[in-house]
Write a structure and sequence with these properties.
Layout lengths: L3 H15 L12 E14 L2 E14 L5 E5 L4 H18 L5 E7 L4 E6 L18 H9 L3
Helix pairs in contact: 1-2
């Protein structure tokens, strides 16, 4: 697949399919409102790149509070990020180190790419940049 837009759409589908594989507990009857993935990739000399990801949903169970729920990306979702990287390298000659994906419940999505040294793979193993994301989401959307 060399169509970047098709790779974006397929990766979003794979990320959304991963949401039920939560890190702690069970997904249950929650419904997600927003998905966020921070995916890092760092090329190794002659080998496969090292990767690191943070993925979570802003979700709510019926009549429950808004929650930030961490989930694991499937191998297919991770492969989607790798494919986007491959296509961008081939088409634009650029290799990103971080891709941040935000997916809204209505299907809209946004990929942002950075070309600077990756945060976690660069040595910051305790990544707290998303710790207050639920509060930021509530402030942004006006959701109580």
């Amino acid at each position: 697949m060399d169509d970047l837009n098709a790779a974006y759409a397929q990766t979003v589908r794979e990320v959304a399919a991963s949401v039920r594989d939560v890190n702690d507990g069970q997904w249950g009857d929650r419904d997600w409102l927003r998905l966020v993935v921070d995916f890092e990739s760092l090329a190794e000399d002659g080998g496969a790149p090292r990767t690191s990801s943070i993925s979570f949903a802003i979700a709510r169970a019926p009549d429950g509070p808004l929650e930030k729920v961490a989930f694991r990306l499937s191998p297919a979702a991770k492969a989607g990020f790798a494919e986007i990287g491959r296509i961008m390298q081939a088409q634009k000659g650029q290799t990103w180190t971080t891709s941040t994906l935000v997916v809204e419940r209505d299907g809209r999505y946004d990929f942002q790419f950075a070309y600077t040294p990756p945060y976690r793979l660069g040595g910051q193993l305790n990544d707290t940049r998303y710790r207050d994301y639920l509060e930021r989401y509530k402030a942004e959307t006006g959701t109580p």
